Amino acid sequence: xxxxxxxxxxxxxxxxxxxxxxxxxxxxxxxxxxxxxxxxxxxxxxxxxxxxxxxxxxxxxxxxxxxxxxxxxxxxxxxxxxxxxxxxxxxxxxxxxxxxxxxxxxxxxxxx
Length: 112
Known about the structure:
mainly alpha; Non-ribosomal Peptide Synthetase Peptidyl Carrier Protein, Chain A; 76% helix; globular
Protein backbone atom coordinates (compact mmCIF):
# COMPACT_ATOMS: atom_id res chain seq x y z
CA UNK A 1 0.00 0.00 0.00
CA UNK A 2 2.87 2.40 0.75
CA UNK A 3 4.28 1.86 -2.75
CA UNK A 4 0.89 2.69 -4.31
CA UNK A 5 0.67 5.83 -2.18
CA UNK A 6 4.12 6.98 -3.36
CA UNK A 7 3.13 6.39 -6.99
CA UNK A 8 -0.06 8.43 -6.55
CA UNK A 9 1.94 11.27 -4.96
CA UNK A 10 4.47 11.14 -7.82
CA UNK A 11 1.69 11.25 -10.38
CA UNK A 12 0.01 14.17 -8.57
CA UNK A 13 3.40 15.87 -8.54
CA UNK A 14 3.77 15.38 -12.28
CA UNK A 15 0.23 16.67 -12.88
CA UNK A 16 1.01 19.76 -10.80
CA UNK A 17 4.24 20.20 -12.73
CA UNK A 18 2.41 20.00 -16.06
CA UNK A 19 -0.19 22.54 -14.91
CA UNK A 20 2.58 24.84 -13.73
CA UNK A 21 4.33 24.54 -17.10
CA UNK A 22 1.05 25.25 -18.92
CA UNK A 23 0.39 28.31 -16.74
CA UNK A 24 3.89 29.70 -17.13
CA UNK A 25 3.97 29.14 -20.88
CA UNK A 26 0.54 30.64 -21.56
CA UNK A 27 1.32 33.67 -19.38
CA UNK A 28 4.71 34.09 -21.05
CA UNK A 29 3.26 33.98 -24.56
CA UNK A 30 -0.15 35.62 -24.03
CA UNK A 31 0.30 37.48 -20.71
CA UNK A 32 -1.98 37.03 -17.71
CA UNK A 33 -5.12 38.31 -19.43
CA UNK A 34 -4.55 36.14 -22.50
CA UNK A 35 -4.02 33.04 -20.37
CA UNK A 36 -7.33 33.75 -18.59
CA UNK A 37 -9.08 34.00 -21.96
CA UNK A 38 -7.62 30.64 -22.99
CA UNK A 39 -8.73 28.97 -19.75
CA UNK A 40 -12.20 30.48 -20.17
CA UNK A 41 -12.33 29.10 -23.71
CA UNK A 42 -11.47 25.63 -22.38
CA UNK A 43 -14.16 25.82 -19.70
CA UNK A 44 -16.88 27.14 -22.00
CA UNK A 45 -16.15 25.43 -25.31
CA UNK A 46 -14.27 22.27 -24.31
CA UNK A 47 -15.94 21.73 -20.92
CA UNK A 48 -12.52 21.30 -19.33
CA UNK A 49 -11.33 23.01 -16.20
CA UNK A 50 -7.70 23.98 -15.74
CA UNK A 51 -7.16 21.20 -13.22
CA UNK A 52 -8.24 18.55 -15.73
CA UNK A 53 -5.56 19.34 -18.31
CA UNK A 54 -3.08 16.80 -16.92
CA UNK A 55 -5.61 13.98 -17.13
CA UNK A 56 -7.05 15.03 -20.49
CA UNK A 57 -3.94 15.88 -22.47
CA UNK A 58 -5.45 14.76 -25.79
CA UNK A 59 -8.50 16.97 -25.25
CA UNK A 60 -6.27 19.84 -24.19
CA UNK A 61 -4.20 19.45 -27.34
CA UNK A 62 -7.31 19.31 -29.55
CA UNK A 63 -8.78 22.38 -27.85
CA UNK A 64 -5.54 24.29 -28.20
CA UNK A 65 -5.45 23.44 -31.91
CA UNK A 66 -9.06 24.51 -32.30
CA UNK A 67 -8.26 27.85 -30.71
CA UNK A 68 -4.78 28.55 -32.10
CA UNK A 69 -4.58 26.46 -35.26
CA UNK A 70 -1.06 25.48 -36.29
CA UNK A 71 0.41 27.72 -33.56
CA UNK A 72 -0.82 25.16 -31.01
CA UNK A 73 2.14 22.89 -31.85
CA UNK A 74 4.59 25.64 -30.95
CA UNK A 75 2.80 26.28 -27.64
CA UNK A 76 2.75 22.55 -26.85
CA UNK A 77 6.50 22.29 -27.53
CA UNK A 78 7.12 25.28 -25.26
CA UNK A 79 5.05 23.65 -22.50
CA UNK A 80 6.95 20.38 -22.90
CA UNK A 81 10.35 22.13 -22.87
CA UNK A 82 9.32 24.02 -19.75
CA UNK A 83 8.18 20.80 -18.08
CA UNK A 84 11.35 18.92 -19.04
CA UNK A 85 13.44 21.79 -17.72
CA UNK A 86 11.65 21.53 -14.36
CA UNK A 87 12.46 17.81 -14.31
CA UNK A 88 16.06 18.54 -15.34
CA UNK A 89 15.60 16.61 -18.55
CA UNK A 90 16.39 17.60 -22.08
CA UNK A 91 13.41 17.77 -24.42
CA UNK A 92 13.94 15.68 -27.53
CA UNK A 93 11.49 15.79 -30.40
CA UNK A 94 10.42 12.38 -31.65
CA UNK A 95 8.82 11.61 -34.97
CA UNK A 96 5.18 10.62 -34.68
CA UNK A 97 4.83 11.90 -31.10
CA UNK A 98 2.12 14.32 -30.12
CA UNK A 99 1.66 16.26 -26.89
CA UNK A 100 -0.05 13.45 -24.99
CA UNK A 101 2.62 10.93 -26.09
CA UNK A 102 5.35 13.10 -24.55
CA UNK A 103 3.36 13.50 -21.33
CA UNK A 104 2.77 9.73 -21.15
CA UNK A 105 6.49 9.12 -21.62
CA UNK A 106 7.34 11.57 -18.86
CA UNK A 107 4.81 9.86 -16.59
CA UNK A 108 6.54 6.55 -17.32
CA UNK A 109 9.94 7.97 -16.46
CA UNK A 110 8.60 9.70 -13.36
CA UNK A 111 6.81 6.57 -12.13
CA UNK A 112 10.01 4.59 -11.70
